Amino acid sequence: DRDTDKKRIEELMEENMVLEIAQKQSMNESAHLGWELEQLSKSTDLADSEKSFVFELNECASSRILKLEKDNQSLQNTIQELRDASLTSRESSLKFVELEKENQQLSKKIEKLQNQIEKEKQSNQDLETLSEELIKDKEQLQVVMETLKADKDREIKDLKQENDHL
């Protein structure tokens, strides 16, 4: 956008210079026509129709000068608007660069948090596995304890019977 604006400004400046040159030429023509008008008015042989023709030419040149001045002013305004737009574009570009940097920083933070989440998930899975293993071990120990208790009860019963028998 800035390159396009710069090119447009350059084109408008060139066009402005062309119009200024045309304006100077028109002014020179007007001055020359004014001089011719003076020369012709000095001449006593000049007819009224020739005077009106010169007057019309002078008015035409004046109106052309006014038109060129308006065009020049319009181009100056356009150039100023493009300069203002270019400044706004530059400010927007700077803000965009700042936002892009901030976005990159936030992306890095998000990536770190995602890594931490993955580690926590893995840790939770490891704890679940360990918990399941401990529950199995507990169940096995309970079975062993019940077996030992039953063996002990049986042995006590046997010993009591033997004791009663003795």
From TrEMBL:
Lineage: Eukaryota, Metazoa, Chordata, Craniata, Vertebrata
Highest taxon in the source lineage: Eukaryota
Coiled coil: 58-165
GO biological process entries: cytoplasmic microtubule organization; cytoskeleton-dependent intracellular transport
UniProt GO molecular function: dynein light intermediate chain binding; microtubule binding
Name of this chain's protein: DAPLE protein
The gene coding this protein: Ccdc88c
Keyword list, A-Z: Coiled coil
Annotated GO CC locations: centrosome; cytoplasm
